[in-house]
Amino acid sequence: MTRICTIPGCQSPHLARGWCNRHYRRWWRYAAPTVVRKPLAPVKDHHLAQMTALASEQGLCRSDIAAITGWSVQTVGRHVGHLVPAKAHPKPDYDRYRRMLSAVKAASYGEMDGIAKRFGLKSAKVLNVTLVTARRRVAEAEGASK
């Protein structure tokens, strides 16, 4: 015979600890199987219209809209997330990438931290990760210009 959830009023099949999937996940997330998340405050129509206008007419990203309206990034994403990207991607600075690559090529062993600091990066490890992107972007730019 199939066991059912031990929470009163729930007839879902048992998963673990005597609870169904829903109550087990609530216990896992909130440390109590009967906790129900509070519904978020509704957004008024004029705020929604403002967010939609900023997203569609000005093409702003979620974080910019959140900074302007005062709502959280999650709230903006929930209401107008389908209209805007999660993060605005800046255009790559090909000149900076080329300077980085030439500096690394001319550098001797042990100078990577100094090069990283010169380009405003935290450490040589961050510089190495950035160089991978730099090589790829410069190769794409050179391939597109041919």
Give a verbal description of the structure.
It is a single chain. The chain is mainly alpha-helical and 146 residues long. It has seven helices and no strands. Helix 5 packs across helix 7. The model has no long low-confidence stretch (mean pLDDT 83).
Condensed summary:
This protein has 146 residues and is an all-alpha fold.
Shape: elongated
Q: Give the biggest sheet.
A: none
* Number of H/I helices: 7
What count of structural domains?
3
Helix content: 40-55%
What is the residue-averaged pLDDT? 83
SSE pattern: HHHHHHH
Topology, element by element:
Blueprint: H1 21-30, H2 45-56, H3 62-69, H4 73-80, H5 94-106, H6 112-118, H7 124-145
Helix pairs in contact: 3-4, 5-7
Properties at a glance:
0% strand, 7 helices, 146 residues, mainly alpha, 55% helix, single chain
